Amino acid sequence: MTSPLDRIGARKRAAGVAADRLPPGQYIPRGWPVLHYGRVPAFDLATWDFRVFGATAGAEQSWSWPQVEALPRVEVEADFHCVTKFSVLGSTWRGVSPRSFLEAAPPAADVTHVMVWAEYGYSSNLSLADFSAGLFATDRNGEPLTSDHGAPMRLVVPHLYAWKGPKWVRSVEYLTADRRGFWEERGYHNRADPWLEQRYSYQESPGDGPEF
Ligand SMILES: Nc1nc2c(c(=O)[nH]1)N[C@H]1C(S)=C(S)[C@@H](COP(=O)(O)O)O[C@H]1N2
Ligand SMILES: [Mo]
Predict the structure, then answer these.
(1) Does the beta carbon of 146 lie inside 6 Å of ligand 1?
(2) From the CB of 182, is ligand 1 less than 6 Å away?
(3) pTM score > 0.85 for this model?
């Protein structure tokens, strides 16, 4: 629960922000909240891998952590919007572009969507276009991600609600038809555009997502 004092703080923090910067219904919390379902997994360098599988054009591929670290890094400045209504503005994310993995393990011609998988079976589905616009982040504001926030690597998809960005990512599955991920199966919107307040699946129009 937020206390009245917290709400005053959130209003003050929002006061200096351009009106078009905060999606409808969002507020600015203190700091960067930690939010996830279940436990924080431990990172084990010896067994960790990152896999691309499913409807690949050629062979499936996997990377060890040192191999991921050898991939080109890109930097993106972006905001972060959680469906529980907090928004963290202006983070500098550094990490690996999804395009690096798409190029190394190209999808078959009929791939339309991906499922991004994390430790413990958390998953989120994205169209190929939304996925390509994201970033597999390893650092934020010049610091490596902490375990709480998804170390060693998490997806961020700034133009969608943050549940579309699994922390502790382990694989990407290429799909030839859209399929709902963890929260998308549990009542959250398939597309999740914060600017359209696409929070819940009951708001979906035909074509926004696969039938339940
Ligand atoms: N693996 C995993 N990733 C996850 C989640 C989760 O429960 N498990 N929660 C999502 C949700 S709802 C949000 S808002 C963000 C929160 O990221 P943060 O804890 O770094 O703020 O992580 C997303 N990624
Ligand atoms: Mo969230």
Answers:
(1) no
(2) no
(3) yes
